[in-house]
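Run Signal peptide peptidase SppA through structure prediction, thanks.
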Amino acid sequence: MTDEWKAPAKVDAQSGDEKSWKLLEKTLLASVQEQRRSRRWGIFFKLLTFVYLFGALMLFTPLMDMEKAATRSANYTALIEVTGVIADKEQASADNIVGSLRAAFEDDKVKGVVLRINSPGGSPVQSGYVYDEIVRLRALHPDIKVYAVISDLGASGAYYIASAADQIYADKASLVGSIGVTAAGYGFVGTMEKLGVERRTYTSGEHKSFLDPFQPQKPEETQFWQGVLDTTHQQFISSVKKGRGDRLKDKEHPELFSGLVWSGEQALPLGLIDGLGSASSVARDVIGEKELVDFTVQESTFDRFSKKLGASVAEQLAMWMGFHGPSLR
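Sure, done. The structure for Signal peptide peptidase SppA is below.
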């Protein structure tokens, strides 16, 4: 009799525990869902604020530029930056530099152009394009002078460009020159032999693979390639001589075209530059218009923002996916 009455009590206790757990589970699930909902709304409002601020920036940036233009003096000096490697698709590509030059020369308020150079050089083709365009624009606009100002480095193709200017200035510690041509590579023939690896090349021309680093050099091909470099070097020398004229002291110093570089202080008596100065001092003291207006072709605000946004989004996605790269701690 006593046992019969105890069984229902156990059932009621188990049933009560189940209900409690279900209630607790529902409460936890509801809390999690509420947190997720709150997080989604938080992200939505952050994005909305971000879009609003970005739209405001895009709207007011042109107005700020117009306001700056309106407050400028009657005339000014155009500044064009030549920074980094001179090559196609780079910031210092011929397209960018030439576009900046044309815009500057077409501006009625520009009284002089300063090319501020900080470059180790690069493609002789790209440098040649810019050189020729400077010569052409100077002939079309004889009243507008072009001044190259070398900051840290104006070497090789960068000096090629500078030599087309009316005058060249540099700091006393700038590195100037490197009038030469180089082409470098590696040879892996001995390594291939040691590894027992056989190179198989199929070509339809006798010398098609003459620059292949896995094949032995042939004297006639080496001589041919040296001829190509010498021809390019002579083109470089000829352009520099045309640009600098009698100012060059190459007869007294034939090593000017050897590929060496000099400090600005050394370059001055050699005729490689015309004086010591900066972009601002040239604008103020030589051109006579101290205000510098940047005509350098730049990425648009939207492009710069897109790149930064893309990097930020990629970083957030990596974090959400649980990926963490190497770190030093």
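The beta strands are 76-83, 110-119, 145-155, 167-170, 175-177, 261-263, 275-276, 292-294.
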